[in-house]
Amino acid sequence: MKHINVALFVVHKGCPHMCSFCNQRSISGSQKEITPDEVHSAAKTAIASLTATEAAGGEIAFFGGSFTMVERGYMISLLEAAYEYVSSGVFKGIRISTRPDGIDEEICGILKKYGVTAVELGAQSLDDRVLELNERGHTAKQVEDAVKMLKRCGFETGLQMMTGLYGSEDSDSIETARRIVEMKPDTVRIYPTVVIKGTRLHELMLSGEFVPKGIDETAELCAQLIPMFENAGIKIIRVGLHSGGGVEEDYAGGAYHPALRELCEGRIYYNIAFEKLHESGCCKYVLAVNKKEISKMTGHKKENLLKLQSFGYDCTVKGLDSMAKYEVAVIQDT
Questions:
Q1: Residues 195 and 77 in one domain
Q2: pTM score, two decimals?
Q3: Fewer CB within 10 Å, N or C, the chain?
Q4: Could you give the CA distance from residue 267 to residue 224 in angstroms, rounded to a whole number?
Q5: Cβ-count burial of 276 within 10 angstroms (0-12 exposed, 13-18 middle, 19+ buried)?
Q6: Cα separation of 169 and 164, whole Å?
Q7: What is the 3-state secondary structure (H, E, C) of the chain?
Q8: For residue 75, what is the domain's CATH number?
Q9: Closest residue by Cα to residue 180 from 241, 232, 217, 113
Q10: 237 φ, ψ to 5°?
């Protein structure tokens, strides 16, 4: 069953830093401060459109990146409104996102009291140099300490990482992913850098000091990161920013695509197929994959098959129930 989030944005409230990439007004599409009444309204709207079973498996989610650093009374008022639906069993819990330096024992106690079940931390990088260059205001150690505390308190723990930040190379993104795997979070989100107008990154881009990575480079990198998390049993909730919310209007550069995960997973299939075909020589082939993965093997607008064709591999794709995800069988077409 698809997981349901009743998503609410606590827009740029409480965060003590303006990170190089941040323009929450564009990401959320609103500057308006949400109220407890709006929490009730959003919950009731969701309930009206869901079955009792769907709602019971869902969470009320406060996103925005710094939930535990907003004014304490305001935070609790939002939690109290959401907790009404958790304590009565309508929803299973509350999900929040916050900064690593916004977690301590007192905060964990408050979150437990009001039915918070999942906490996502915006780690972004575990390279202190990259964190400092992008004005994050926290260290890699603070990420590790916060994860340990959250896991000890029994929260489902998620980490969010970014690729392609100012001063970042593929190697430090891969190392960040490796260290995230070592921390064993329950979930992860991969957010390749998108340059939004009005941010420090936009200024750096316009001056030529920062050249954002495009979709092709990003897909190649994420094709390495995704298997690292999946092989470790860490659920990848999201790859790339959600469409809507003003992102398209304020987009200035970087790896934004509404189906970025599909492109990245398609690149995984392409790389596997190319390696196997390279060992076989030029000819006509059938690429057998799981039936649910045919579109990824084919690629967006058939780009994978067209690229293979440019190397002399004339391929078609066949779906089989017996194939595992990312498994590709190369069959010579006679």
A1: yes
A2: 0.91
A3: C
A4: 9
A5: middle
A6: 7
A7: CCCCEEEEECCCCCCCCCCCCCCHHHHHCCCCCCCHHHHHHHHHHHHHHCCHHHHHCCEEEEECCCHHHCCHHHHHHHHHHHHHHHHCCCCCEEEEEECHHHCCHHHHHHHHHCCEEEEEEEEECCCHHHHHHCCCCCCHHHHHHHHHHHHHCCCEEEEEEEECCCCCCHHHHHHHHHHHHHHCCCEEEEEECEEECCCHHHHHHHHCCCCCCCHHHHHHHHHHHHHHHHHCCCEEEEECCCCCCCHHHHEEEECCCCCHHHHHHHHHHHHHHHHHHHCCCCEEEEEEEEHHHHHHHHCHHHHHHHHHHHCCEEEEEEEECCCCCCCCEEEECC
A8: 3.20.20.70
A9: 232
A10: -75, -35
Q: For 74-124, what is each residue's pLDDT tens digit?
A: 999 999 999 999 999 999 999 999 999 999 999 999 999 999 999 999 999
Q: What is the pLDDT of residue 288?
A: 98
Residues 163 and 305 in one domain: no
Q: Are residues 268 and 254 in the same domain?
A: no
Residue type at position 66: S
Domain that holds residue 42: 5-258
Question: Which residue has tokens 């941010």?
Answer: 199
Shared-domain flag, residues 248 and 295: no
pLDDT (tens digit per residue) in 21-58: 887 554 444 467 899 999 999 999 999 988 888 878 89
Q: How confident is the model at residue 328 (pLDDT cuts 50, 70, 90)?
A: very high
Q: How far is CA 285 from CA 202, 276, 280, 308, 332, in A?
A: 45, 11, 10, 11, 4
Encoded tokens for 225: 């990161």
Q: Are residues 269 and 295 in the same domain?
A: yes
Same domain, 176 and 318: no
